[in-house]
Amino acid sequence: MRNIAIKDAMRHVFCWMIFLIFVVHSAAAIDFTIGDLTYTVEDAISHTVSVSAKDKYIEGDIIIPSEVEYEGVKYTVTTVQEHAFYELYNLTSVVIPNSVTSIGSLAFFKVKVVYYAGSERFGSPWGAKRLIKGTVIDGDFVYEDNEKTKLVAYIGSESEIVIPGSVTSIEENAFKECSELTSITIPNSVTTIGNEAFCYCTSLTSVNIPNSVTSIGSEAFYYCTSLTTVTIPNSVITIESGTFQKCSNLTSVVLPNSVTTIGFVAFSGCGNLKSITIPSSVTTIKGHAFSYCTGMTSIVIPNSVTEIDEKAFLYIDTLYYGGTATKYSPWGADFLIKGIVFDGDFVFKDEQKEELVGYIGTSGIVNIPNGVKIIGDNTFKNHSELTTISIPNTVHSIGENAFYGCSKLTAFTIPASVTSIGKYAFYDCSGLTSITIPNSVTTIGSRAFGGCTGLTSVTISDAITTIENGTFHDCTGLTSVTIPNSVTTIGSYAFQYCTG
Questions:
Q1: How far apart are CA 370 and CA 366, in angstroms?
Q2: What is the H or E stretch that residue 31 is in?
Q3: Can you point out the beta strands (E) in 44-135?
């Protein structure tokens, strides 16, 4: 009888075990759908579920909840299934709760943006185009923390945005590719702007960076092609690499006296940048910092700069610099002029201000100061805004390329004090109509007046013995030339294409 009782007890326990296994197995296989999401019970005892898209047609923004309720039971979402949102091209974003600790392979393949600040990192970003660390959403703003100090993303579509006053840090990529954004107000609570924070905001026209900001990350405003003006606060020490690279419509930048370093390609490709003042606080300019800034004809580099990297000024015409850096000189620029004395818009080579080597103004009418004896090479080169210039009778030499490309220059008189005019001195000054070369001039360089297509008459000095090669080449409007008896030699092509 005892054996029979034991066998009955064992049979009873075995049946209960089979029943419990069946119940657990049945529960684990439960699937249910709420909204656009389907859940699968993973553990009926701990009440955990995995999640996936209900079908291939869901679109817009999806927020996965940390907890769901089904038939009176609350379940915690801990897993995103493998391929859960695979190739759902109409999804703009998915927010994953921090309760999720396991994310399957390629769960978000081709999904545009995923927001997640949880612990799982294996396989990140699980096929998504972009992963943003943040899940606290308030309106159109996404934060990393409950205090809403770290702004990690903007998911709205407004053109004008005011960042909330709780924010202290605009994180990496926060506004990346917000192409509809035209203006943004940054509160003075913000101290940090992260890498690529506003890159590819192609409609952004202006930004006011408050004095509270001490750090602006690399490529923070990269390819903001509508940005026209920027004022950088005096709390910033370094302009990082690529910060304003390819801001092709940027015309004005104010750098504060706090800046010591201008980073690699910081302003590269800013083709409409007309001028920039580099403060005397700057000591280092990295490679390609201003390369392809083709709108600038010249840049003044303060003597405080002791390190200039390779091609920092590639495709800029003229540099003015009297400092000690020599490696890689002239750093990609066409000309380096060692001007060390500045007086208004004029740059001089000497303390006595007798040799004028540069003009950094934009006026159409210029009066060269009395006392100047030499107008140096390239001094006014490509100043296309110049219409009228007054040369004092203290000047005895006009250098090579001195007025090259001053296409609007129409009025000036060469004083009787001038004895030499350099090569290409007035080349391509197409606005000139007549010129009288005084008898004091003994030498005129080759092509000095070449390409002056508007020139109709020329009177040459009695002191000239040789008209050099191409001196008046391509002066297509020239109809009258007075050549004195002193001339014994006329060089090759001196009057070629003077078809007027």
A1: 12
A2: strand 31-34
A3: 48-53, 60-63, 67-70, 73-80, 91-95, 102-103, 114-115, 131-132
Q: What is the pLDDT of residues 398-426, one digit of tens each?
A: 999 999 999 999 978 999 999 999 999 99
Q: Which residues contact 402 (CB under 8 A, 6 or more apart)?
A: 375, 376, 377, 378, 379, 380, 381, 422, 425, 426
Task: Give the Cβ contact number of residue 45 at 10 Å.
Answer: 8
Structure confidence by residue, pLDDT tens digits, 205-238: 988 899 999 999 999 999 999 999 888 999 999 9
Write the CB contacts of 48 (distance below 8 Å, at least 6 apart in sequence). 41, 42, 75, 76, 77, 78, 79
The alpha carbon of 16 is separated from its chain's Cα centroid by a whole number of angstroms, namely 71
- The residue to which tokens 């004008």 are assigned: 160
Element at 23 (helix H, strand E): helix 2-28
Region class of 96: left (phi > 0), else alpha (psi between -120 and 50), else beta = beta
Hey, what are 314's tokens? 């590639």
Given a cut of 60, whether residue 437 has pLDDT beyond it is: yes
Q: How far is CA 262 from CA 236, 258, 283, 353, in A?
A: 11, 11, 9, 31
Pairing of strands 31-34, 60-63: unpaired
Sign of torsion over alpha carbons 390, 392, 393, 398? negative
Backbone angles phi, psi at 460, to 5 degrees: -100, 145
Backbone angle region of 448, left / alpha / beta, with phi > 0 → left and psi within -120 to 50 → alpha: alpha
pLDDT recorded at residue 339: 66
Distance from chain centroid for Cα 105: 37
38-61 per-position pLDDT tens digit: 999 998 889 999 999 998 888 888
Q: With 90 as the cut, is the pLDDT of residue 87 above it? A: no
Tens digit of each residue's pLDDT (9 = 90 or more) over 107-144: 888 888 888 877 777 877 888 887 877 668 788 898 88
Q: What is the pLDDT of residue 216?
A: 96
Q: Are the C-beta atoms of 474 and 449 separated by less than 8 Å?
A: no
Question: Is residue 18 helix, strand or coil?
Answer: helix
The size of the chain, in residues, is: 500
Task: Report the distance separating Cα 209 and Cα 200, nearest Å.
Answer: 18
- Burial class of residue 23, CB neighbours in 10 A (0-12, 13-18, 19+): exposed
- Confirm if 305 and 282 have CB atoms less than 8 A apart: yes
Do 182 and 227 meet the contact criterion of CB atoms below 8 Å apart? no
Which value, to the nearest 10 degrees, does the dihedral of the CA atoms of residues 350, 353, 356, 359 take? 110
Distance CA 214, CA 462 (A): 66
Calculate the CA dihedral of residues 272, 275, 276, 280 and round it to 10 degrees: 160
Average pLDDT for the chain: 89
Closest CA to 220 of 392, 236, 284, 211: 236
